[in-house]
Amino acid sequence: MRQAALLLLITAACGGSMTMVADDVAPPDVDAQVGPVCAAAPADATGQGTYYNADGTGNCSFDASTDFHVAAMNAADYGNADWCGACLQVTGPKGSTVVRVVDQCPGCAKGDLDLSQTAFGELAPLSAGRIAITWHEVACDVTGPIGYHFKAGDTKFYTPIQIRNARYPIAKLEVQQGGAYVAIPRVDYNYFVPSAGLGDGPFALRTTDTRGHVVEDAAIALGDGVTRDGAAQFPVCP
Questions:
Q1: Where are the beta strands (DSSP E) in the chain?
Q2: Angstrom distance (rounded) from CA 82 to CA 58
Q3: For the chain, first and last CA: distance in Å?
Q4: Tens of pLDDT along 112-159?
Q5: Buried residues in 203-235 as b, exposed as e (16+ CB within 10 A)
Q6: Beta-carbon neighbour count of residue 151 at 10 Å?
Q7: Got the DSSP string for 164-202?
Q8: CA–CA distance, 116 with 123 (Å, rounded to integer)
Q9: What is the pTM of this model?
Q10: Phi, psi (5° rounding) for residue 77?
């Protein structure tokens, strides 16, 4: 549910900014809050593609999905859940497909992807087993705003938050405390986990994607196993 009093700042694609505020909220200081927009995408990668019986769950802690165009990222590139939620265009012997990163593949070498059977089958026959691939990041084809998912069991003392439905991977999540934004540490299972909880809420949150776009929400209510809608979605970079 959208919050009644929203403060939204979202940087417009490649070179501008757009500010939307509720009537009773003062406009933000745009220059102080907007980071660089449309930063360059990571370079193309090459590696080996394999497949596994994927259902959308995994180390990124997403729910099971009916869209089986998903993949597990090799451990070297996975980092600290850096690629979770990213969409990749993968090219193999027979063509290309787009997958979403939902898991980690500990046994994969740098550049490798462990693909769902559905995705692998669009690149080569499953009987091939292992194929040469190239891949690069693309914008996820999402609709609606980003979502703030509160882990089951969240309380004012323990408040892990995960960003969902984002067009690009998430670089940073911050919460406003004492008049300033403070970064919330991220863990490798793709939640941002404050050391001592966030209190009763509602929370003023600022989310930055890997392309430098920023979305701010002024009043996200505490939840337990629920996803709260944010105010907007990150714009598409060319």
A1: 7-12, 16-21, 45-52, 70-74, 87-92, 95-105, 113-116, 131-138, 147-150, 161-164, 170-177, 180-183, 203-209, 214-220, 227-229
A2: 14
A3: 30
A4: 999 999 999 999 999 999 999 999 999 999 999 999 999 999 999 999
A5: bbbbbbbbbbbbbbbbbbebbeeebbbbbbbbb
A6: 18
A7: ES-SS-EEEEEEEETTEEEEPPB-TTS-B--TT---S--
A8: 11
A9: 0.83
A10: -85, -25
Query: How far is the CA of 139 from the CAs of 13, 100, 108, 159, in angstroms?
Result: 12, 10, 24, 29
Instruction: Give the position of tokens 């994927």.
Output: 54
Does the domain made of 45-138 have the CATH classification 2.40.40.10?
A: yes
In angstroms, the CA 34 to CA 164 distance is: 21
CATH class of the 7-37+143-229 domain in this structure: mainly beta
Question: Boundaries of CATH 2.60.40.760 in the chain?
Answer: 7-37+143-229
173 has pLDDT over 90: yes
Span(s) in the chain for CATH 2.40.40.10: 45-138
The backbone torsions φ and ψ at residue 126, rounded to the nearest 5 degrees and listed phi first, read -60, -30
Rounded CA-CA distance 78/73 in Å is 6
